[in-house]
Amino acid sequence: QKIDGNHGGQVLFVEFCAYVRSRVNPDANPDFDADIISGERCGKVVRTAHGNKATHTHYVQKKTLTQFDTVEKRMKDTIKDIAKLKDLWNTLDYNGNNIVSLAEIDKLVVEKFPLLNHKPALMRAYKATLRSGDGDDWVEKKEFKFLLGNLIYFNKLFWLFSNVDGDMDRRLTYQEFKKCLNIAGAKMSEAETRQDFTRVDRNGGGIILFDEFCMYFTQKACPECLTAMAE
């Protein structure tokens, strides 16, 4: 009853947050509570007290291919330095059993390579690494270089995929697929592009999923970073 101020029989999430915070910190600023409950003055209290500089960096920055190139260079430098490579593996394999799970890889990416924190790309990199190894469900120490290469490669593919996926539904139409090939620098005729799209779109639904997109690219062109980084 206390939270449901308008007695409508429902509690909004922002109202619930304000209630919990008041229980944890009864001396909370009442202006801040009002800010949460209304949902219309977010940030005004902070800016009034601290100026616009308090919130000027609070925005989502679009990722660029150059950023991925920078991370790729960092990984290649690590691979060339045996000491750094061992340190990175030890960070990943924190329990020292010489095998790592998908969850451990995810933790490493989030903490060390946040730019690569895209779950669809992570899953593709993980599966591709397993296929290149002995086929079990664990990435072993000897497969670590391939894992790093796969993380870069499939994240670049995910960036490419996302940039042409206009409605962000994780599916590509023919026009989006065509645009993707143009960005990638593929020199193909309209007929060749249509033929490839039809080949990838096996069920004829007129759309391509990210997994299908990855399979197409890895079969179409050898991922250079995988061979170069694993040598």
From TrEMBL:
UniProt KW tRNA-binding keyword: no
Superkingdom to which the source organism belongs: Eukaryota
Protein known as: EF-hand domain-containing protein
Pfam families: EF-hand_7
Keyword terms, alphabetized: Calcium
A molecular function GO annotation: calcium ion binding
Organism: Alexandrium catenella
Domain EF-hand: 152-187, 188-223
